[in-house]
Design brief:
530 residues; 16 strands; 21% strand; alpha/beta; Double Stranded RNA Binding Domain
């Protein structure tokens, strides 16, 4: 299989996405995960742009990476400046990475109107910088910024910028669709021309997603001869984002037969996508291909029946190949065989027509009539099944709680909760404050239970949704609360329904804690084994 070098820019281009601000610790964690995935390059930041990146590179040198090479990123020397005197170029060398990426203008408009210099000086800036870095023993990747826009305006000059980099010793030429406006046929034709013109250098592709073409454009570039693909995990990036490596890698490796990452590493893809999303403090797109929570989710009864018989009927790949899993959604449109598949995950002995199965189905319909919706809260559904089958022992019981709310808030605290819970024959009384009654209730429950169940401390709420179910009753309406939680490894969603939003929230909070405790309990080896 032809080898394609995967070049990850999650920590540099991805950090330019709205709402992202990685700490140094965040970046180090992501580097470890990307290296385990087996990417070839990790573009980790611009050491000349901020002190945080300087600190990162100083600490990253101690990492023992097995697969990836770290890359520092920066610009060509400044207009009219000697390269040896350019502070940004010197900071790139100071970063101590084995490889360096340099971006330079390849669109004559950008040279004349943005840099405000001559076309000849821009070529000299590219050549001087690449040559200087090569003299210091670095692998050099030249990012031809705005290359495709430049080609469309002045293909002769766009090629001259690449020639300047190659003549100075650049190891790779990366064609950048910086504005994200190109189409796959354009990318293919132009990339093929560049590959034929510069056979001595590796050709890469760097696409943005402004036309939602970034993944398709990247793949067409590979088919045209590119051997390096740049992108980010989950497509993070400025504006509409960058090319999504979580789609590109499996498309190339599983569908087209290219060798992108080490054998077996693809099974870690979903975990890496979720980890990066968690570290960035952004929700993972459930509809993301391959790694999203909905990517292999089935709800319609006929679809589910077909998938149970043969997954190929409604799945384009085996989800386990990318570390994801099939989900059979629990809802009123699901057939009996669908529900049985979920029930059998808890009790494999139950048959389709058993009294227990009928009891569970009847209860599901009753709860959905009350406003519960388990297709988005399968963890709560599993708890319902466990309770109906007698396979559930509560870890704790609520005796009572009282909520006091004061306005105005003082130091972002406006609520306090007194809670009493029973664990076995022991009662625990606790008081906690919070920013709102639900936050105070969550804090109080954790304070009461973490001493007995330390694992509860690992749970973090990542999403909280409230839906009014019967708006005609105005403020007396019943509400549905969905809480998404994570322990850093897995995520799950639980549900509560009540005319009292605090009670509905409590139901979902309790389920979230019990899901975590049950999973940890069942993952432990049986007593007497090791």
């Amino acid at each position: 299989m032809a080898h394609i070098s995967i070049y990850d820019s999650t920590l540099r281009d991805g950090a330019q996405a709205q709402g992202i601000s990685y700490s140094v610790e965040d970046k180090l964690k992501i580097v470890v995960r990307l290296d385990a995935l087996g990417v070839a390059y990790i573009e980790a930041g611009n050491p000349g742009s901020n002190p945080k990146d300087l600190e990162f590179f100083a600490r990253a040198g101690a990492l023992k990476l097995r697969h990836a090479r770290l890359i520092a990123f920066g610009a060509t020397r400044k207009v009219g400046k000697r390269v040896a005197d350019d502070a940004n170029v010197k900071s790139l060398l100071k970063a101590g990475t084995p490889a360096i990426a340099i971006f330079g203008k390849s669109w004559d408009y950008q040279v004349l109107e943005i840099l405000r210099t001559t076309l000849e000086e821009n070529l000299a800036m590219i050549g001087d910088t690449v040559r200087y870095l090569k003299q210091h023993g670095k692998e050099v990747v030249f990012d031809a910024e705005h290359f495709f826009d430049g080609w469309k305006d002045n293909d002769e000059y766009a090629l001259k910028t690449l020639a300047a980099a190659v003549e100075a010793g650049a190891d790779a030429l990366v064609l950048c669709d910086t504005n994200g406006g190109s189409f796959p046929d354009e990318i293919f034709d132009i990339t093929r021309t560049v590959c034929a013109r510069f056979p001595q250098a590796a050709v890469g592709i760097h696409c943005h997603n402004d036309s939602e073409m970034a993944v398709a454009n990247s793949i067409r570039a590979v088919q045209a001869g590119a051997t390096q693909v740049q992108g980010t995990i989950n497509g993070l990036g400025e504006r509409c984002g960058n090319a999504n490596l979580c789609s590109i890698i499996p498309n190339l490796q599983l569908k087209l037969g290219y060798d992108c990452i080490p054998a077996g590493a693809l099974a870690h893809l979903t975990n890496v996508a979720r980890s990066v999303s968690e570290i960035a403090n952004l929700p993972l797109n459930d509809k993301a291909p391959y790694v999203g929570g909905h990517a292999f989710a089935h709800k319609g009864g006929m679809h589910i029946d077909a998938v149970v018989k043969n997954p190929v009927s409604y799945e384009h790949i085996n989800p386990e190949l990318v570390g994801n899993s099939r989900r059979v959604l629990m809802s009123e449109v699901a057939g009996r065989s669908t529900l049985l598949a979920r029930i059998n995950a808890i009790d494999p002995t139950l048959a389709k027509d058993s009294p227990e199965t009928k009891k569970i189905i009847d209860k599901l319909k009753e709860l959905e009539h009350e406003g519960y919706q388990f297709e988005a809260a399968e963890s709560s559904f599993d708890l319902v099944v466990r309770k109906l089958l007698g396979r559930y022992t509560p870890f704790f019981e609520l005796v009572e709680f009282k909520v006091i709310t004061n306005e105005p808030a003082v130091n972002e605290v406006n609520s306090s909760v007194i809670i009493k819970v029973r664990v076995g024959d022991q009662e625990v009384l606790t008081v906690a404050e919070g920013d709102g009654p639900v936050n105070a209730l969550d804090r109080a429950a954790r304070k009461a239970l973490e001493r007995l169940y330390p694992a509860i401390g690992e749970i973090r709420l990542t999403d909280y949704k409230v839906r009014v179910l019967d708006s005609d009753k105005a403020s007396a309406a019943k509400v549905r609360v969905l809480i998404e939680s994570t322990d850093g490894h897995d995520s799950w969603t639980t549900i509560g329904v009540s005319t009292d939003i605090i009670n509905a929230s409590w139901q979902a909070l309790v389920d979230a804690m019990e899901v975590k405790l049950i999973r940890d309990q069942e993952s432990q080896p049986p007593a007497g084994t090791s």
